[in-house]
TrEMBL record:
Record-given protein name: Uncharacterized protein
Domain Glucose-methanol-choline oxidoreductase C-terminal: 330-474
Organism in which the protein naturally occurs: Mycena metata
Region span, Disordered: 1-32
Keyword Signal in annotation: yes
Stored InterPro entries: FAD/NAD-bd_sf, Glucose_Oxidase_domain_2, GMC_OxRdtase, GMC_OxRdtase_N, GMC_OxRtase_C
Length: 487
């Protein structure tokens, strides 16, 4: 993999994220199969590979006695990634739950079973015996270190794929930035993590094997806006757990009916061309989820300080907690294409908030979070006060201004090598093979400017943290490659 501008870690997503794998409603996985042409990628199949990638440690505590967690053992297997109940529940959590339930939200005792609506704490991909993160490196690579058939090259950047006809025969790469070009040859398959498909972006003199304009397009970034509050804290042990708490909401939980009707009207008038998405089927799915009252934003609360937020009166020694409002089904889309003037030859255009639907949902989300903070359970019992943005009244105009000022991504880009029909802008088929190639598959794509690994084959954002879905895709891809190798 290439070296990022912030760090260089194998499997950056899992190494940076301590959250456990999560699942959207089964209907979202099923839609990949029935609506988007990804045959065989449905809820039952994903559950099979979730079980292969994760397990539920035995004899776990249930968390806070007033808000116990009850994961369903039937949804887990014997995979290497643990789903651990937090061993420490910060005092602010109970106040947060009370504030949310006062506004009509319900506590969900297990949000990891595909029913993610309501308010719930995150399970963690943490080894409960040692209280350490379990990344893909720890779970999958470490046990194989020293294997005679495994070589890992870090700080290596691919230059081109070698082809004979439509068969990939190897990869040309730079072992270090600026180093001499080297080659490695493939006997069976090449798994791709970058590429150029649209003839428009291919440098002059470079031959093209397949013209796939969908490569690099359809970039979905989970858009986030963050707020910071101060509170009076008591308790110990915050580093022993994920300490993140979720609220997954349909629009009706925080927007009035007239505003929802306006947003749905805007969605109905949208075309694939107007929002920059190649797949008309994917757009229809986004519209359906909007009309069916599916989850739209997720709100994360975490008891920690975010010093990167603009403004705010931060005082050393005070206790802070933040909110992050994240769009799970954004209508804005971008692209990541080759550019000779871009960093490492890549130009990323996220086009955040290019669609007004996203801006309106985030604006209403910011106002709803302010309402949560002003509930007695937080404002009086926990002594919470708004810091960034400050305590002034947040009308729609002020909330929209904060959205523009504090906008960021949630570091979950995907879609740039989408598993869609080719006519819909797809890049790979349901076997994860690039169209018109014999042995070239795609799994993960490294997007430098997003500082993240992009699950590029997933065609749309799902209402969950993507880490577990990526593990499941990897497990299924491994089975596919093993099956092909025996044919």
């Amino acid at each position: 993999m290439g070296r990022g501008s912030t760090d260089a870690v194998l499997d950056r997503k899992a190494a940076r994220s301590h959250k456990a794998p999560k699942k959207p409603p089964a209907s979202e996985y099923d839609a990949l199969d029935t609506s988007l042409g990804a045959t065989g990628w449905n809820a039952a199949e994903f559950l099979k590979y979730f079980k292969k990638s994760e397990h539920l440690p035995e004899n776990q505590p249930t968390g806070d006695a007033a808000y116990p967690l009850t994961p369903d053992p039937a949804l887990y297997g014997s995979g290497p990634i643990p789903n651990t109940v937090p061993v420490h529940m910060p005092a602010i959590a109970a106040h947060y739950y009370k504030a949310c339930t006062a506004l009509g939200l319900h506590f969900n005792p297990f949000g990891g079973n595909g029913n993610n609506g309501g308010v719930w704490p995150a399970l963690a991909a943490v080894d409960p015996a040692h209280v350490t993160r379990v990344s893909a490196d720890v779970a999958y690579l470490a046990p194989m270190r020293g294997a005679s058939n495994l070589t890992v090259l870090t700080e290596a950047r691919a230059a081109r794929i070698l082809f004979e006809g439509n068969t990939a025969t190897g990869v040309q790469f730079h072992e270090q930035d600026g180093a001499a070009v080297r080659m490695v040859h493939a006997k069976k398959e090449v798994v791709l993590c970058a590429g150029i498909g649209d003839r428009e972006y291919i440098p002059e003199g470079v031959p093209q094997v397949v013209n796939l304009p969908g490569v690099g397009s359809n970039l979905h970034a989970a858009v986030a806006v963050r707020k910071l509050e101060e509170y009076k804290a008591h308790g110990t042990g915050p580093l022993s757990t994920a300490s993140l708490f979720y609220s997954y909401l349909p629009l009706k939980a925080f927007m009035d009916a007239d505003k929802i009707m306006e947003i749905r009207r805007m969605a109905d008038e949208a075309t694939a061309e107007s929002i920059g998405i190649a797949s008309a089927q994917a757009l229809e799915l986004l519209k359906k989820w909007l009309h069916d009252d599916e989850i739209q934003p997720r709100i994360i609360m975490g008891p920690m300080h975010l010093p990167m937020l603009p403004g705010g009166d931060f005082v050393l020694g005070k206790h802070y907690f933040f909110f992050s409002i994240i769009l799970v089904h954004p209508f804005s889309h971008g692209a990541a294409h080759y550019s000779p003037t871009g960093a490492h030859g890549l130009e990323v255009s996220l086009n955040l908030l290019s669609n007004p639907i996203d801006k309106q949902i985030l604006t209403a989300g910011v106002q709803f979070v302010r309402k949560i903070v002003t509930q007695d359970a937080l404002a009086k019992e926990a002594g919470a006060r708004a810091v960034a943005p400050g305590p002034a009244v947040l009308d729609a105009q002020a909330a929209e201004a904060w959205v523009q000022q504090a906008l960021a991504t949630a570091f979950h880009p995907l879609g740039t090598a989408a598993m869609l029909p080719r006519a819909e802008g797809g890049v790979v088929d349901p076997q994860l093979k690039v169209y018109e190639t014999e042995n070239l598959r795609v799994h993960l794509w490294f997007v430098e400017d997003c500082h993240e690994v992009d699950a590029s084959v997933i065609p749309v954002q799902l209402s969950c943290h993507p880490m577990g879905t990526i593990y499941a895709i990897a497990e299924k891809a491994a089975d596919m490659m093993k099956a092909s190798s025996t044919q």
